[in-house]
From TrEMBL:
Positions of the HTH tetR-type domain: 3-63
Originating species: Pseudorhizobium tarimense
Location of the DNA-binding region in this protein: 26-45
InterPro entries (UniProt xref): Homeodomain-like_sf, HTH-type_TetR-like_transc_reg, HTH_TetR, Rv0078-like_C
Keywords carried by this UniProt record: DNA-binding
Annotated protein name in UniProt: AcrR family transcriptional regulator
Short name of one Pfam family: TetR_C_41
PROSITE patterns: HTH_TETR_2 (PS50977)
Amino acid sequence: MVEETRSKLIRAARKAFAEKGYTAASMDDLTAEAGLTRGALYHNFGDKKGLLQAVIDQIDGEMLVRMRAARDEANTLWLGFLAEGIAYIEMALEPEIQRIMLFDGPAVLGDPSRWPNQNACLQTTAQTIEALIIDGTAKPVDAEAAARLVNGAALNAALWIAASGDPRATHDKAVGALRQLVSGLHRADGE
């Protein structure tokens, strides 16, 4: 029952936040949409901010699945590493992700690089870079430092795309720059 209540609230909030934005989404409207009361919202999430965090966690999980799928479709670990970063940047073109993850999330919850889900993403990127170093594909570098820089570049590219007057053109620039940036990690034969 608790999980069903949480799911209903998250579903209603996600729809309201995507359509109206966090500020304009009324707690009364979204709880009515879910067929629940404000008390259910407070009991499960503490407040509207807690509900936003739950919506972001859900979307982030979905984004991670999509990024891993892009990675797994690649022919090599290096190409998978690159595909994962590009997939993240491409998702910044989606209106729901723009509004909830890139506009409202930072405005309400603060710096996205400090969100709890970023630690898992950072660890995954660092592990991939370490594997690339071990197999000789990447130059020897501190894997955590490189992961922080690559993840920071992808996050800032996504924020840039979301705020752009021409998101598609900005996306193309960001992907090209990301390719160049990470190519500095790639070890050419004989290095």
